[in-house]
Write a structure and sequence with these properties.
alpha+beta; elongated; 2 domains; three-stranded antiparallel sheet; 5 strands; single chain
Length: 114
Amino acid sequence: MPSNEGFDRKTFENVFPKTCTVCGKVYSTCDEFLSKTSSLDRGDLSQGPKNSVLAYRNCDCGSTLTIKLEDLRDYSPEGIKRREEFRKRLKQVKETEGLDDQEAVAKVKKEMGF
């Protein structure tokens, strides 16, 4: 999960506090949630509905907690530049290599270190 530097604070305001329904532990902030829970073996992120991202973490009690984040885009100048570079490279890969959308996205993500 990326840090929230460069992200609009509204991204996180409706997510926390997050309470574990099994043991009742409360995570007040995103930083606390990330530092006091553990990663899942299968990964922590998945695509949610309508441009959202679902983040999964394990509570100390073993329960899996999920948070839904609506917009994780980095709106800093560097973030905007990275998205522009990604779109440009994606177009190039699709045109020159004839890959479908999913293959092209995977290739460009790997090239750019995502």
